[in-house]
Amino acid sequence: MLTSIAISNFAIVESLELELKSGMTAISGETGAGKSIMVDALSLCLGGRTDAGVVRHGEKKADISATFDISAYPAVQSWLEERDLENDHLCILRRVISKEGRSKAYINNRPCTLADLKEAGSFLVDIHGQHEHQSLMKRSAQRQQLDEYGQLTDLTRQVREEYNSWRKLKDELHAKQNRSAELDARIQLLSYQADELAQLDLKVGELEELENEQAFLSNIADAQFKAYASAGILRDSDEGNVCSSLHKAIQQASAIHPATKELDNALEMMRQALIQAEEAATSLSHYQDTLEQDPGRLQDVEQRLSDIYDTARKHKVLPEGLIPLRETVDQELEALSGGEESLEALKLKEETAYQQLTSSATLLTEKRTQAKEELAQRVEEQIHGLGMPYARFYIHCDPLDQISAHGYEEIEYMIASNPGQPAQPLRKVASGGELSRISLGIQVVTAHTSVIPTLVFDEVDVGISGGTAEVVGRMLRSVGNRGQVFCVTHLAQVAAQGHQHFRVSKEVFNEATVSKVESLAETNRTQEIARLLGGIELTEQTLAHAQEMLGNVQLQ
């Protein structure tokens, strides 16, 4: 629950710190004193929208923090632990707004996103404003409220997700079944290209191998002639060759006397040169023997290269780009056409998704039917006590022509205010007072089932007075008996029901207006209840009446 709130330089509040308790806390004050300031500040701590106008005039920033005891709420503790934001059994939400309109958010004194602040706040506080009935005019809000009351939020989310998945499959199937002429032409072109590239069937590295082989086959005759000539120079020529010359040189040098070390070295080098020359001549002869002209193979290679070059020019790519082009064409063709097997598979997936969706939506309809009867009965009981004893409240499930993301039906709140009148949609009820009372009855009922620890009612009793106001106060007190309720009110009958009572007032200090909040003890509370009953001038009668009201509450 909310244990304290600290507000600094917000609106007309200079500095405010409040320690808060469980039960029902009434907040009252004169018109314009700023009764709703605490609610507005708390709303910002929960991630509400803001602007520079909330910063107190002349100050640089507004600073608001709210401290919650979450020891009895393990779901909130787990949420904080998952984000490394835990702080024993406390959750401190803080918002700082600069005079330029920029804001910073913190959870347990650690910076966080505004989305995280909103999500954390959604676990902790639920604010019911005085204009709540305006949102209840919308069918979407009514559907959401019924689903929350029936604890169907997870199921409605499941139906919505399954609906979106099914629609995606259905649209994909429709597109595949209704291809345009342009798409057919594209598929036809791709099919032709795929067949042509498949027939060519160029392999990785084949182009380089063919070009090297072509160069080799084209130069066999020249290679044979040059190998023959080289071998002749080394050994085979009758007119003189390297080997015979080296042999003669060795003979002449061997006959020199006396022999010296230099001469021996020279002879050794010539003998080695003779050996190398003979081996080289032998290798050339062997190489020459391996060279065999093959005109047929050369023609085949040149034709293959011609086919590759022609196909590359046709597709406006380099020859080495034909292989990646084939892969691209095959992939696009598969994506566009797929074939009958993929179409049948898609049909099966769509049918399976639809069956799952209809199963979940049927279950949602069943649970909504159960929840709407209970909610309608409880709301009707509440509005009977709010000065509408003959009103009948219904929740109509209007079947849709086809399934939607929200299920098989639309929800509509219906009301028959007086006997003999037909029920009509709540949005068509003309009386603002009736709308306020019906809205309050709905809020009180849904608050009873709320798992949120702190509930705030901001002047939801507008348009209500007399005995009805006392019923409203009792309703809010009963909710407070099981948790924590804050109620901003201008009615004595409601304020008297509070377990605690705060009074908001304003004063001028140093030519500046300042709003302050004080907790009322018994005497001051009696005076505040009397003021709410009879105005500024307090009389013995109004004070006695106030004491009686407070005494009656104690006896309940």
TrEMBL record:
<dbReference type="GO" id="GO:0005524">
    <property type="term" value="F:ATP binding"/>
</dbReference>
<keyword id="KW-0067">ATP-binding</keyword>
<dbReference type="Pfam" id="PF02463">
    <property type="entry name" value="SMC_N"/>
</dbReference>
<dbReference type="GO" id="GO:0043590">
    <property type="term" value="C:bacterial nucleoid"/>
</dbReference>
<dbReference type="InterPro" id="IPR003395">
    <property type="entry name" value="RecF/RecN/SMC_N"/>
</dbReference>
<keyword id="KW-0227">DNA damage</keyword>
<dbReference type="GO" id="GO:0006281">
    <property type="term" value="P:DNA repair"/>
</dbReference>
<keyword id="KW-0234">DNA repair</keyword>
<comment type="function">
    <text>May be involved in recombinational repair of damaged DNA.</text>
</comment>
<keyword id="KW-0547">Nucleotide-binding</keyword>
<dbReference type="InterPro" id="IPR004604">
    <property type="entry name" value="DNA_recomb/repair_RecN"/>
</dbReference>
<dbReference type="GO" id="GO:0006310">
    <property type="term" value="P:DNA recombination"/>
</dbReference>
<feature type="domain" description="RecF/RecN/SMC N-terminal">
    <location>
        <begin position="1"/>
        <end position="506"/>
    </location>
</feature>
<protein>
    <recommendedName>
        <fullName>DNA repair protein RecN</fullName>
    </recommendedName>
</protein>
<dbReference type="GO" id="GO:0009432">
    <property type="term" value="P:SOS response"/>
</dbReference>
<comment type="similarity">
    <text>Belongs to the RecN family.</text>
</comment>
<dbReference type="InterPro" id="IPR027417">
    <property type="entry name" value="P-loop_NTPase"/>
</dbReference>
